[in-house]
Amino acid sequence: MGRFNLIISVLFSLGYYSQGSAIAIAQKADVQAAKGPALAASDKLNKLFSDLQHAPDEVQARLIEAKIWQHWTLSGASKIDSLMKQAKLLASRGHYEPSLGLLDRIIYEQPTYSEGWNRKATVLFFMRRNDESLKAIAKVLVLEPRHFGALAGKAMIKIRAQKWGEALDTLRSAVKIHPFLKERHFINILEKKLNIREL
Predict the structure, then answer these.
(1) With a threshold of 0.90, does the pTM exceed it?
(2) CB 12 within 8 A of CB 19
(3) Is residue 12 a part of any domain in this protein?
(4) How far is the C-alpha of 139 from the C-alpha of 170, rounded, in Å?
(5) Assigned domain for 166 exists
(6) Could you tell me the CA-to-CA distances from 157 to 70, 92, 122, 179 in Å, in that order?
(7) Do 29 and 155 contact (CB within 8 A), yes or no?
(8) Rounded to an integer, what is the distance from CA 196 to the centroid of its chain?
(9) φ, ψ for residue 56 (rounded to 5)?
(10) What are the angstrom distances between the C-alpha of 168 and each of 150, 180, 196?
């Protein structure tokens, strides 16, 4: 029995709590304990995004970016992480359909894992299944609105479809999150294509 639950038991025996309130408090404590690691991870990620926005140069930005990707990639479940490694390896070798099968399995087992959806979007992009890729990207951005990788992917699909204005808007949103985004050079290209000049 945890220390908190032991205290609740003692107080209950002394008549300080009814059984219902004691159980409710114990359950709340268990939920808070379970949230502990998730909240700590969230705080760490928030700090990384703050550091990224204030990175003094591209070298520092890349180091912070790598830490963010590492955070995103780890699902918290060894089975899912193993499947993700297999899916990445298959995709890197051009075996897109088997990779997609594993990613669908990952998403089925852990639907709130944003990187599962992002990796699926990437594989679908390589397969030129643009509409499906955009749907997967939409899922990513619901789970992690700051996902600059997903935003960059969305912009590339819009460029592929020659939707220059939508691509530009998406890239501008991504650069607000990640000022040193690799795809940021497309902004100038798109502005020229749309005859947008700085005032």
Answers:
(1) no
(2) yes
(3) no
(4) 16
(5) yes
(6) 25, 20, 10, 21
(7) no
(8) 32
(9) -75, -25
(10) 14, 16, 11
Asked if residue 10 is part of any domain, the answer here is no
Distance CA 168, CA 145 (A): 17
Domain of residue 110, residue span: 22-193
DSSP 8-class letter at 147? -
Cα 17 from Cα 7, distance rounded (Å)? 11
Distance of CA 168 to the CA centre of its chain: 22
CA atoms within 13 A on the CB side of 48: 19
- Domain containing residue 156: CATH number: 1.25.40.10
CA 161, 94, 107 angle in degrees (round to 5)? 75
Any domain includes 109: yes
Please tell me the distance from the alpha carbon of residue 126 to that of residue 178, in angstroms, as a whole number.
Answer: 24
**pLDDT tens, per residue, the chain with 199 residues:** 454 444 434 333 434 334 444 444 444 444 344 444 555 678 999 999 999 999 999 999 999 999 999 999 999 999 999 999 999 999 999 999 999 999 999 999 999 999 999 999 999 999 999 999 999 999 999 999 999 999 999 999 999 999 999 999 999 999 999 999 999 999 999 999 998 754 3
> What is the tally of structural domains in the chain?
1
90-98 own/partner pairs: CB under 8 Å, 24+ apart: 91/119, 91/122, 91/123, 91/126, 96/123, 96/126, 96/127
